[in-house]
Specification:
The structure is a homodimer of 195-residue chains. Chain A has 195 residues and is of the alpha+beta class. Chain A has 3 helices and 10 strands. Chain A has helices at 50-57, 96-102, 111-120, and strands at residues 5-7, 12-17, 22-27, 34-40, 67-69, 75-82, 134-136, 160-166, 170-175, 190-194. A 6-stranded antiparallel β-sheet of chain A has the order 1-10-3-8-6-5. Chain A has a 4-stranded antiparallel β-sheet with strand order 2-9-4-7, covered by helices on one side. The N and C termini of chain A lie close together (10 Å). Chains A and B meet through α1 and α2 of A and α1 and α2 of B. Chains A, B: This is Urea carboxylase-associated family protein.
């Protein structure tokens, strides 16, 4: 039996993921977002790259079969399961600045950015090195005519998941998102397991 | 009289841009792309961020009046002139890996990535620190339904330009793009001036 790990609401974690292992990110209650980062465990200057990935995939809608590339154009992760088919790879993790910008009336929160920065610090990954995350379940439609984007509630239902196989030894950062807009105004945990 | 500087075809350069100065990037022949990077001149770990910028602007189509943010959520540049209105901020600079992927039958070229890496090296900016560039004049429509993106010839005509005012002291990297798809299959120079 494989244990499922709980990431409590508005928090984050980091862990090693060996080459060949599969990380399954689960939305246990539905309509929650998990920001995912990946770094080469042997050299953390190699990092997941939205720009490389979108270029090679020729789409902003990544799903089953798509590969997530590093800034060195190497495959870090392959999506091997996806019950949702709607994720975001355009936006950086929410941060205290995001809260001040979008939610001036709410108490500011360090957000996924702050949670990732703390979780990744033991791996010698500095906050400035946090790039655009692969935002599991995040629903960011783009208007093809105007280019305008919106952050809408995720399409994920309780129990939905995305599975990613590591193609190199990785350090993963993963959160249960803290921003009201990305999860329909509620804060919920994220589960994950490694097979 | 302000001198115009020529960036020869398939090459790149880097230079300091003082706070308050305006950089005008000119497409002298039309249908050419210039990849633009910006770093805080006082601390090059602060770098232009597509993810922050798209999040705050709520659009992927940046033009007159939009601000380009750093990874620390500070404004680096403001777009103060734009005769085209179509630029890309999704894709990383073309590189030798891009050429091997998209143009397997052409002689590979180090691309904008290699040109930027060489130009930025004297400023202690490593290749791994090159993020998604603001790709002036690059025409990357996204299908709002499917998410698919295409790289089409730029909409810029000969003499078109975009002007950006520096909101902090910056190091700028700038290229005349090397990838056939981004400029309709031809290679042309880019001009710029600083006012």
């Amino acid at each position: 039996m494989i244990d499922t790990v709980v990431i409590p609401e508005r928090s984050g974690t980091a862990f090693k993921l060996d080459k060949g292992a599969t990380l399954t990110v689960i939305d246990p209650r539905g309509e929650q977002v998990a920001d995912l980062l990946a770094f080469n465990a042997e050299d953390v200057r190699e990092v997941i790259s939205s720009g490389r990935t979108l270029d090679y995939a020729e789409t902003i809608r990544l799903t089953l079969g798509n590969k997530l590339y590093s800034n060195r154009s190497r495959v870090m992760l392959t999506i091997v399961g996806d019950t949702v088919g709607c994720h975001d790879f355009l936006l950086t993790p929410c941060s205290i600045d995001t809260f001040l910008h979008f939610y001036p009336d709410l108490p500011p929160h360090r957000g996924c950015f702050g949670n990732l920065a703390e979780a990744l610090a033991p791996y010698d990954i500095a906050p400035d090195a946090i790039p655009i995350a692969f935002n599991c379940f995040m629903n960011v439609p783009v208007d093809g005519q105007t280019g305008k984007l919106k952050v809408l509630p995720p399409l994920s239902k309780a129990g939905d998941s995305i599975a990613l196989r590591a193609e190199m030894d990785l350090i993963i950062g993963l959160t249960a998102c803290s921003a009201p807009d990305s999860n329909g105004g509620t804060f919920k945990p994220i589960h994950y397991r490694i097979d």
